[in-house]
Write a structure and sequence with these properties.
This protein is α/β, with parallel strands linked by helices. About 35% of the residues lie in helices and about 20% in strands. The longest helix is centred in the N-terminal third of the chain and has 22 residues. It is globular, with a radius of gyration of 20 Å.
Length: about 325
């Protein structure tokens, strides 16, 4: 609740101190009602986010990939911005202060690996939607064998070029152009100790297919980590309207509120694929200080950790 009030105060302060942005704010809101319109993706679905059923080609049984070409195009255009820590993607860089310790500490506790300078040594991690490698690099420096996967070929080129400047990463970090569905189709299953999909799921077209393929890639007993944006009134006004059209924290058109996934929806998709949610944290971003902090509220951003059901149920954690 405190984070919610702070968000409201920040937005009010910006509008009050800079009257030039007020017309822009009104234009974006238009004649929208208090609650943003929810686009249900199929007549038989109770979910508001895109599913494989809603993404079928008309008149066919063929499902589209979870990757949206328009989303890939947007991220291709960010090629020269991935490693600008003060640019459009500065929020992703500062998010590492939360997500890297979360992943590290959870895996150390789960696998009992040592806590020296390379505490994740010996673990295989897949960083889905890795972009320019902002998260992949620090995970590899912790000793993990990291594979960065992205549907944007330009992002993969940037990530590979950046990695080339650090010889210490050549044996622990690989970047590949592709999708989770593509890896599953190539018979890469039950391979990774952990999969990370940070700020990705809100950009895919078929959430159910994306989650199912992600779960297939993780070993029984392995971990899945997600960070994303909740689909709430607050996220519409702050993550879309304020962030993109008022404060210009991210480029306009970066997010589609209808594609945001609620914690309960993500939990349901994971459970449907024999993965059990173990932890969920709310996250709060202050765009003025460019700092992230944990929050009791999941109304805006949240992080979720789940564990894939072990093949031997007797080994399952209590």
């Amino acid at each position: 609740m405190g984070a919610c009030k702070l968000c409201g105060r920040m937005l009010f302060a910006v509008l009050r101190s800079n009257r030039a942005v007020a017309p822009c704010f009104r234009d974006v809101l238009g004649t929208a009602e208090t609650k943003p319109p929810v686009r249900y993706c199929s007549s038989t679905s109770s979910t508001a986010y895109p599913t494989s059923e809603s993404m079928r080609e008309p008149g066919t049984k063929q499902k589209k990939t979870s990757i949206n070409p328009e989303e890939v195009k947007k991220f291709n255009e960010l090629a020269n911005k991935w490693w600008d820590t003060k640019g459009d993607l500065r929020g992703l860089h500062s998010m590492n202060r939360l997500r890297v310790p979360l992943i590290r500490d959870t895996l150390i506790k789960q696998h009992g690996v040592n806590t020296q300078s390379r505490p994740l040594q010996g673990l295989r991690i897949l960083d889905v939607g890795c972009g320019g490698g902002i998260l992949s690099v620090p995970l590899a420096k912790l000793g993990a064998m990291v594979t960065g996967l992205d549907a944007s070929e330009e992002a993969v080129k940037v990530a590979s070029a950046h990695m080339a400047h650090d010889p210490s990463l050549k044996d622990t970090l690989t970047f590949i152009h592709g999708t989770v569905e593509g890896l599953v189709a190539s018979e890469v299953r039950d391979h990774y100790d952990a999969l990370v999909a940070s700020e990705v799921i809100e950009h895919v077209d078929a959430v159910d297919d994306f989650v199912a393929s992600s779960c297939d890639l993780v070993k029984p007993g392995g971990s899945l980590f997600f960070t994303t944006i909740n689909r709430t009134n607050q996220s519409y006004y702050l993550a879309v309207v304020a962030a993109e059209y008022v404060l210009n924290v991210v480029a306009r058109g970066t997010h589609n509120w209808n594609k945001f996934v609620t914690p309960n929806e993500l939990k349901e998709e994971l459970r449907a694929n024999s993965c059990h949610p173990r932890l969920i944290h709310g996250m709060f971003y202050n765009p003025f200080s460019n700092r992230w902090s944990w929050s009791v509220s999941t109304e805006m951003n949240y992080a979720l950790h789940a564990i894939k059901e072990p093949s031997d149920l007797g080994d399952k954690e209590s």
